[in-house]
Specification:
The chain is an alpha/beta fold and 439 residues long. The chain folds into two domains: 28-150 and 328-408, Rossmann fold; 154-302 and 413-425, Rossmann fold. Helices cover 43% and strands 17% of the residues. It has helices at residues 4-23, 43-61, 84-95, 109-123, 153-166, 180-195, 214-226, 240-260, 278-286, 308-319, 329-349, 356-364, 376-384; strands at 30-36, 73-79, 102-104, 126-129, 146-148, 171-177, 199-206, 231-235, 269-271, 296-301, 369-371, 389-393, 396-397, 410-415, 421-425. The protein has a seven-stranded mixed sheet, with helices on both faces. α5 (153-166) packs across α6 and α11 (329-349) packs across α12. The chain is elongated.
Length: 439
């Protein structure tokens, strides 16, 4: 009969061997840099992006191993301010002392164009953005170094235009922000909408100097009444500034309608992706007594909230004390997971840093065993055994095409009487061809 002390000795030896085995795989930290617009006009969105990536890193590092053969992931945050020059200068200063494996971001499209051309291409740094949606980024000569997990603005604007036309809303009034993102979105929308015989009765920029007064509102009210309730389309950021402007706009319109003794002038109100915020939701909810919530829809990039991937991701985020429905959170979580999986693929296959994009495409695109956001350890185990995987994200199938783009999945979002977003998925508009890997 084996003595208890002998059994304990054997167990201790086994544990020590396991610790020694894993310790051989953990070396220096794996450094990833992230360009967040922590200051500037989209700082609230940048905060959501940063929080989601932080939770993803904690998930990856949870067992103390991280990337087998390399070590734990660390993420360095660099403030871009959503300003191209500041982004370039800040990144160059950072690179003088650091050598990151991957760059995540930038948050803003204009900054992305600049750093790709001026910094990341010369330095051979793989860059993945979860928010830079400017169409030009699809065709920029990037030496296969720039990818994005957010669809191009062309996809979103096309989705909104086609949806309105499918609802027989063929006349609209347009409000849009003067920043690059919303201006580009508006111009793409106008092109698609008018080419299909949609009519834009009036469009105007909302700037920092816009004054929402009676004279401003009268133009909208008069045009809307004359044209029998057109749709109102808004391309704006869902930040404090926008909410204040919309509140002034809505209250002034309502005041004018009372004078005219009419209940409504717009057939429906439509907003875009970056208006899917708690601030906008709360504002719409405040107008429930006049049923404005039923007449307002935000068309935004979708997550399939009934999917296993979303439920797993939501549990991870909630356990970390983070709202899983924050704007850009799901796609940012996916981006961090893809970056880590690419690094694990690279480490196992001894792929050079300048060819890291091959590992990224390999783990993102078919063929391969499908892995979701809660399957980090299983996906890592497959990769270190040389088995190919295909990451299926919270935000959909992140299959990259030849330009480093992904297909968009969009949804209709309305505010409920419980002050929640009610989500309805939009059907896909066109086929999307992911890049094919040929060995």
């Amino acid at each position: 009969m084996i003595k208890t002390s002998h059994i304990m000795k054997i167990i201790t030896i086994i544990i020590l061997k396991i610790i020694l085995f894993y310790s051989t795989f953990v070396s220096a930290e794996v450094k990833i840099a992230a360009l967040y617009a922590e200051s500037g006009p989209v700082s609230e969105i940048a905060e959501s992006i940063a929080e989601a990536k932080r939770v993803a890193v904690e998930t990856i590092n949870a067992d103390g191993i991280g990337i087998v053969g390399r070590g734990l992931i660390s993420i360095d945050s660099i403030d871009s301010g959503c300003d191209p020059r500041k982004t370039e200068d800040s990144l160059n200063d950072y690179l003088k002392k650091n050598d990151p494996e991957i760059l995540l971001g930038p948050t803003c499209s204009t900054s992305a164009v600049r750093v790709i051309e001026k910094v990341t291409i010369p330095e051979n740094i793989l860059t993945i953005s979860s928010s830079a949606s400017y169409p030009l980024l699809s065709t920029i000569e990037d030496n296969d170094l720039f990818f994005r997990t957010i669809p191009s603005d062309i996809q979103q604007s096309t989705s909104i235009a086609n949806y309105l036309l499918s609802k027989n809303i063929r006349e609209i009034i347009l409000l849009y922000g003067d920043d690059n993102y919303n201006s580009t979105l508006a111009q793409n929308f106008l092109k698609v909408y008018t080419e299909q015989e949609g009519i834009v009765l009036f469009n105007t920029l909302l700037t920092d100097k816009t004054v929402i007064n009676q004279n401003f509102i009268n133009t909208f009210v008069d045009i809307a009444i004359e044209n029998d309730q057109p749709g109102l389309v808004m391309f704006l950021h869902g930040n404090e500034r926008t909410v204040n402007l919309l509140e002034q706009f809505t209250n002034t319109v309502l005041s004018r309608l009372q004078e005219l003794e009419t209940s409504g002038i717009f057939k429906h109100h439509y907003g875009s992706d970056s208006m899917l915020t708690n601030e906008v939701k709360d504002l719409i909810y405040s107008y429930i007594p006049i049923q404005l919530n039923e007449n307002t829809t935000i068309v935004a990039q979708a997550t399939s909230q009934s999917s296993e991937e979303f439920q797993t991701y939501a549990n991870i985020m909630l356990n970390a004390g983070v709202d899983p429905n924050s704007p850009y959170s799901a796609i940012s979580f996916d981006t961090m997971m893809l970056a880590a999986l690419a690094l694990q693929h690279q480490a196992h296959n001894n792929i050079a840093k300048e060819d890291l994009s091959k590992s990224l495409v390999s783990v993102a695109n078919p063929p391969g065993i499908k892995m979701g956001p809660g399957s980090w350890e299983a996906a890592r185990a497959l990769l270190v055994r040389g088995v190919e995987i295909n990451y299926e994200g919270v935000s959909g199938s992140l299959d990259f095409d030849i330009n480093g783009d992904v297909e968009g999945m969009y949804s209709l979002n309305q505010v409920t009487e419980d002050n929640l977003w009610a989500v309805e998925r939009l059907e896909k508009l066109h086929p999307f061809e992911p890049r094919i890997i040929i060995d």
